[in-house]
Structures are given as structure tokens and as C-alpha cells.
Amino acid sequence: MTSRLVAPVVATLLSLGCASQQQAVRPSASPPRIQHLDAVLAAAEQYPCVAGLHPIPATFIDNGVFAEVPYQSFSNGNVELNAYGDPADLVGLEAGTRNEDAATQQCLVQFIAAQTLSQLDQQRVMRMTAAPMLDQQPGLSVEVTPRNAPDAYDAWWISLERPEEIAAHRAPPEELAQVTQPQAQWSPPPPMVSVRVARPYVRYPTYRPVRPAARVYVPRFTRRAGIYLRF
């Protein structure tokens, strides 16, 4: 999440201006169901299983549910957290672990439940007691994925998905060019002292395999008027 000057951001807005004028920005069809990313990261410090998260490279995804949806990834060495879409209006949130400890998995369920914005959704998450398990309802789906699932990367996952909003948060090619970079160029951002406890950076490996020539999402990005921009 390298810092950027204002000028590149302005240039990006100008370069995307014509496209944004030709294509009306689609507002969210449903209200947010997941806490914004800053709140998620602040809450993580209150849960032993996810405390101490550090940013890690988020590998570009070109297939599956979250194909071409920008996301940010974090790890504390025991748990990986992925937050998909606009950081201020997440369309997906998942936490995974390769630790078989039932207490760790239950802690992740409690943490993810607390990141929903309604009591009913919190109750739905807390009822997820087995893997695989899927609670698919309009607006928000909740899923537990076992380690042996094809897309699990040998990790157990608890996840939230807003299926009606995911398509609207995919980034077109010109925006993907702005918010991705070669893996070799990725570096962690300055610590966000206001959100999390400041601590020395630790580079943890990602669960998704990263090829040497792979592109990853920049450490920090935002979304303004339906356009993804890098910090």
C-alpha cells in the first residue's frame, strides 16, 4: 500500500472521465450488509484469532465468484482475511485458517458474525457449525468451506457474500490496470495507527499460490463514483 501523490490520482480521474460519462454509475441495489473495512480491521484486534493482522499481496483472481473484484488481503500467520470490493461497501469478507483447532474456527465464526450489520445476519453466521454449510438468502449468503474444497487452498473458511452486488463491483480493464501491479513491486503500506496497533511489519505467505509473474492488487485502493483508484 505504497503512498501516492495527488497528481496520479487526478490523472486517473481525467483518463477515466470519458468512460464514466458514457456509462452511468450503478448504485448499490441493496444497503450494506458488512462493516466497512476500517471497522473490520479495528474489530480484529479484539479477537485473539485475528489480532495482529498484516497486509499481504492479494493475488489477482480471473475466475470464480470474485473474478476481477479488487480485494485486500491480510494475515497474522495463523489466519488469512480477504475483503472484496469497495472498502467502504464490501461485497465479500472471508476468514480462513489451516489450523484444525476447533477453538480457532469458532473464534473466526464469532468474528465474522460481528462484521455483519444486522442481528439477524449475526445469528445466521453463529448457526454455521459444520463444513460444508451454506445459508443462501437474498442480500447476503453465509458459507463455511472445508479444507478439501477445490478453491479452499487447504484452508477452512467462513465467508460472507453479497451475490447481487458482486457483479457491480467488478473492475473493467482500465481500472484493473490502475489497481494491480506485478508481485515483485508490492510493498506493505505505512501502518494505520488510527485503525490498528502499530507493530513491526511481518511478511506472511498467502494461501493463494503466487506465480513469479503474477499481478496482485495494490496494498490500498478506494472507489469513488464507481471507479477504483489506488492510493
Explained architecture:
By secondary structure, the chain is of the alpha+beta class. The chain has one domain. It has helices spanning 6-22, 37-44, 102-114, 119-126, 163-166, 173-179, and strands spanning 54-56, 58-59, 71-75, 79-84, 92-97, 133-137, 140-145, 156-161, 180-182, 215-217, 221-224, 227-230. A seven-stranded antiparallel beta sheet has the order 1-3-4-5-8-7-6. The protein has a three-stranded antiparallel beta sheet with strand order 2-10-9. The chain is globular. Mean pLDDT is 86; it is low at 1-25.
Helical percentage: 10-25%
How many structural units, i.e. domains? 1
Q: Any idea what the radius of gyration is?
A: 17 Å
Mean pLDDT: 86
The helix tally amounts to 6
Instruction: Supply the helix-strand structural class.
Output: alpha+beta
| SSE arrangement, N to C | HHEEEEEHHEEEHHEEEE
Strand order of the largest sheet: 1-3-4-5-8-7-6
Oligomer: single chain
Count of DSSP strands: 12
Global morphology: globular
Low-confidence stretches: 1-25
Biggest β-sheet strands, sense, barrel: 7 strands, antiparallel
Instruction: Determine the strand fraction and express it as a percent band.
Output: 15-25%
Distance N to C terminus? 7 Å
In short:
With 231 residues, this protein is α+β, with helices and mostly antiparallel strands.
